[in-house]
Design goal:
Layout lengths: L11 E6 L7 H12 L6 H4 L3 H6 L6 E6 L4 E6 L7
Parallel strand pairs: 1-3
Antiparallel strand pairs: 2-3
GO molecular function: GTP binding; GTPase activity; translation elongation factor activity
Organism: Candidatus Aquarickettsia rohweri
Keywords: Elongation factor, Protein biosynthesis
Length: 84
């Protein structure tokens, strides 16, 4: 059951970071949340799986949200390894 009703009161923008391994996709995602968001998502909080934290790489796509005065953003941070 849903926790609450989502009220869309701003335009919604889907965005993401993709690129080669170790080119700073997750670092950029964290910087974007700090710049645009009311509160920043720390770099080490974006990758949540224990193996991701242990190896320092993104294995699974991660989702963060942030908003400005005029828009709501849903951001997907994608892994850069070809294996994933």
């Amino acid at each position: 059951m849903a926790e609450g009703k989502f009220e869309r009161n701003k335009p919604h923008v889907n965005t993401g970071t993709i690129g080669h391994v170790d080119h700073g996709k997750t670092t950029l995602t964290a910087a974007i949340t700090k710049y645009f968001g009311k509160s920043a998502v720390k770099y080490d909080e974006i990758d949540k799986a224990p193996e991701e934290k242990e190896r320092g790489i993104t294995i699974n796509s991660a989702h963060v949200e942030y908003e400005t005065e005029s828009r709501h953003y849903a951001h997907v941070d994608c892994p850069g390894h070809a294996d994933y």
